[in-house]
Amino acid sequence: SGFTEKQEALVNSSWEAFKGNLSQHSVTFFNAVLEKEPEAKNMFSFLGNGVDPSNPKLAEHAEKLFGLVRDSAIQLKTKGEVVAEAKLGSIHAEKKVTDAQFAVVKEAVLKTIKEAVGDKWDEELNSAWEIAYDAMAAAIKKAMA
Ligand code: HEM
Ligand code: ISQ
């Protein structure tokens, strides 16, 4: 039932793969979000010119998001639950982020991790990311309320 050491290790190692080519994977990530949710372009101040691979803000923001999903995996393993900082709740409440948008970002995270790990991808790895993402999304939604 609990999040296992193996699942935590899978998330950690694929987080390293993501960081290994951060600028490329950040572009993949933003394109995947915008393909399903064009409105997101207006939600991020730094997307004024669309997805510009030379804009360092893309990587900065993507790194924060993926880093928090990794942190979620660590929290799940060490204490069995995930808590989000109050500020994360207020930012997303302010931007009026919806459940449907959380689902779009989830699919984009999974697609990006698949690209990052290449032939190391399997269902177990995918499922570990899903569990960690869902737990962090739930914690943010709770902090939004
Ligand atoms: C801001 C994390 C889901 C929209 C932030 C920030 C963090 C963060 C750390 C503040 C720093 C930064 O801007 O990079 C997360 C995590 C998510 C999540 C971990 C899922 C588990 C979403 C979703 C949306 C969204 C689904 C809607 C498309 C935004 C916006 C900002 C923001 C618009 C403000 C960006 C700006 O300053 O221009 N998020 N987020 N987030 N998030 Fe999220
Ligand atoms: C949501 N929150 C923070 C950063 C993000 C970067 C890309 C797409 C969605 C995001």
TrEMBL record:
Gene3D superfamilies xrefs: Globins
First-listed, main subcellular location of the protein, grouped into a coarse class: cytoplasm
Any single GO CC term annotated in Swiss-Prot or TrEMBL for this entry: nucleus
Domain spans labelled Globin: 2-145
Compartment annotation: Cytoplasm, Cytosol; Nucleus
GO function terms (MF aspect): heme binding; metal ion binding; oxygen binding; oxygen carrier activity
Keywords assigned: Cytoplasm, Heme, Iron, Metal-binding, Nitration, Nitrogen fixation, Nucleus, Oxygen transport, Transport
PROSITE patterns assigned to the protein according to its UniProt record, in alphabetical order: GLOBIN, PLANT_GLOBIN
Any one Pfam family match given in the protein's UniProt record, by short name: Globin
Protein family according to the UniProt entry: Belongs to the plant globin family.
Subunit structure: Monomer.
Protein name, per record: Globin domain-containing protein
Organism whose genome encodes this protein: Sphenostylis stenocarpa
Organismal lineage: Eukaryota, Viridiplantae, Streptophyta, Embryophyta, Tracheophyta
